[in-house]
């Protein structure tokens, strides 16, 4: 199979919420996200000034956050299963008309597959990265290379930790990263979206005041990139980052 045809990037996320109205209130206050109703408790999400929607909030029986790779869903599901992924949700149409499926990767992280996703330049409050934290970096790196053709290289600017950047075929810039958790006792694997913001400390402070939590940060890498992680009121974990002036 041609890896170029299977995926280019992680370009969508989905929030499943037992209290979607509370979720909408939290994210509107934190990022000014705009929500478009499609019925059946399904709302697409657009960041202020963005060219297209980047995710969805849906009513669910549990609280969950899933990142989605934009790809040919019907073609990609059997390919990922052949690599050891487990099908969790078979392909189906969302109320907005997109074809989606969800699998568990080789580390049991939920990874969605979507027929469409965010496009256009990133704006503050929009997804512009994704991160996979793993206690088995070798297996994780190999799975995503075989799955989507993404190669990974050590990020030397990430001081004090082992971090790898994902690059899709032919790309000049990374689209996401792998955080090596092997040196952190008790750490659990995760797969989360990364949001571009203007001020990480301000975001984390406002998040805590709104009922969310600070997981880590802000911290800076050798290039001046500032990073932080937070949770929403339901425990969903996110990454956020701010680029240095001129970066």
Q: What does this protein look like?
A:
This protein is of the alpha+beta class. It is 19% helix and 39% strand. It has five helices and 16 strands. An eight-stranded mixed beta sheet has the order 2-3-4-1-5-8-7-6. An eight-stranded mixed beta sheet has the order 10-11-12-9-13-16-15-14, with helices on one face. It is globular and about 45 Å long.
Radius of gyration: 17 Å
Q: H/E order of the elements?
A: HEHEEEEHEEEEHEEEEHEEE
Structural class: alpha+beta
Total of DSSP H or I helical runs spanning 4+ residues: 5
Main β-sheet: number of strands, strand sense, barrel status?
A: 8 strands, mixed
Strand tally:
16
**Unreliable parts:** 1-7
Mean pLDDT: 91
In terms of quaternary structure, the protein is: single chain
The percent range for helix content is 10-25%
**What percentage of the residues does DSSP assign to strands (E)?**
35-45%
| Arrangement of strands in the largest sheet | 2-3-4-1-5-8-7-6
Rough shape? globular
Distance N to C terminus: 36 Å
Quick recap of the structure?
The protein is an alpha+beta fold. About 20% of the residues lie in helices and about 40% in strands. A hairpin with a 5-residue loop joins β7 (about 100-105) and β8 (about 110-115).
Question: Secondary-structure blueprint of this entry?
Answer:
Layout: H1 3-6, E1 10-17, H2 20-31, E2 34-37, E3 42-46, E4 55-59, E5 64-70, H3 73-82, E6 86-93, E7 99-104, E8 110-114, E9 127-134, H4 137-148, E10 151-154, E11 163-167, E12 176-180, E13 190-196, H5 200-209, E14 213-220, E15 226-231, E16 237-242
Parallel strand pairs: 1-4, 5-8, 9-12, 13-16
Antiparallel strand pairs: 1-5, 2-3, 3-4, 6-7, 7-8, 9-13, 10-11, 11-12, 14-15, 15-16
């Amino acid at each position: 199979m041609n890896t170029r045809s299977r995926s280019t990037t992680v370009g969508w996320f989905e929030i499943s919420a037992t209290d979607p109205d509370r979720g909408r209130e939290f994210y509107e206050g934190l990022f000014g996200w705009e929500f478009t109703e499609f019925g059946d408790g399904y709302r697409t999400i657009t960041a202020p000034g963005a060219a297209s929607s980047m995710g969805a909030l849906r009513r669910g029986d549990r609280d969950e956050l899933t990142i989605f790779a934009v790809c040919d869903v019907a073609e990609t599901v059997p390919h990922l299963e052949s690599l050891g992924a487990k099908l969790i949700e078979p392909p189906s149409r969302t109320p907005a008309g997109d074809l989606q499926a969800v699998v568990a990767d080789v580390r049991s992280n939920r990874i969605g597959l979507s027929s469409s996703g965010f496009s256009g330049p990133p704006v503050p409050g929009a997804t512009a990265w994704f991160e996979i934290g793993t206690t088995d970096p070798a297996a994780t790196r190999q799975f995503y290379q075989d799955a989507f053709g993404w190669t990974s290289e050590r990020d030397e600017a990430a001081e004090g930790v082992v971090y790898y950047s994902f690059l899709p075929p032919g790309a000049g810039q990374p689209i996401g990263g792998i955080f090596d958790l092997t040196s952190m006792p008790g750490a659990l694997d995760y797969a989360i979206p990364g949001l571009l913001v203007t001020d990480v400390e301000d975001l984390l402070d406002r998040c805590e005041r709104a009922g969310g939590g600070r997981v880590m940060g802000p911290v800076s890498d050798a290039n001046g990139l500032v990073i932080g992680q937070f949770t929403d009121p339901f425990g969903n974990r996110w990454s956020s980052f701010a680029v240095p002036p001129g970066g």
